[in-house]
Design goal:
The chain has helices at about 35-60, 100-105, 110-115, and strands at about 1-5, 10-15, 20, 70-75, 80-90. The chain is of the alpha+beta class. It folds into two domains: about 1-35; about 35-120, 2-Layer Sandwich (GMP Synthetase, Chain A, domain 3). Strands 1-2-3 form a three-stranded antiparallel sheet, with no helix packed on it.
Length: about 130
């Protein structure tokens, strides 16, 4: 993955031919032209759980157009960090009762969540090009 800069506060990641654009809000000195990097981090949690839920339902022929994952966060004022991330899988009335617990279990298989629970080491170095 290559990371490069544009504009005031725009930071772009080039990964497998895709540009993943980020920016800062206006009050942070950016143009608010794209999500902030931390917003993408949060979105990766919900979308990762979402693909597991979608795949589970697709494999069983369960329609997904009325399923929503609602994500919220609880801020810890002592640490000044997010203390909890809540994911609520909103299911339609006709969702099969026998799969309600299973859909929670598959959402918990999310690879992003697994990495947060067992974080990798992050090493930062410099080099000349």
């Amino acid at each position: 993955m290559e990371i490069y800069f544009e504009g005031k506060k725009q930071v772009i990641a080039l990964h497998h031919g895709h540009e993943i654009r980020t920016d800062q809000p206006v009050e942070g000195g950016g143009d608010d032209s794209a999500p902030a990097p931390f917003d993408l981090f949060l979105a990766s949690i919900g979308t990762c759980a979402g693909i597991y839920v979608k795949s589970f339902c697709d494999q069983r022929g369960i329609p997904t157009e009325d399923i929503r994952l609602m994500q919220s966060v609880e801020f810890n004022h002592e640490t000044r960090l997010i203390g909890r991330i809540n994911l609520d899988i909103q299911l339609p009335q006709d969702f099969p009762e026998k799969y309600r617990d299973a859909v929670i279990n598959v959402a918990n298989l999310c690879a992003v969540k697994k990495h947060l629970l067992n974080p990798p080491e992050i090493e930062v170095t410099t080099s000349t090009h």
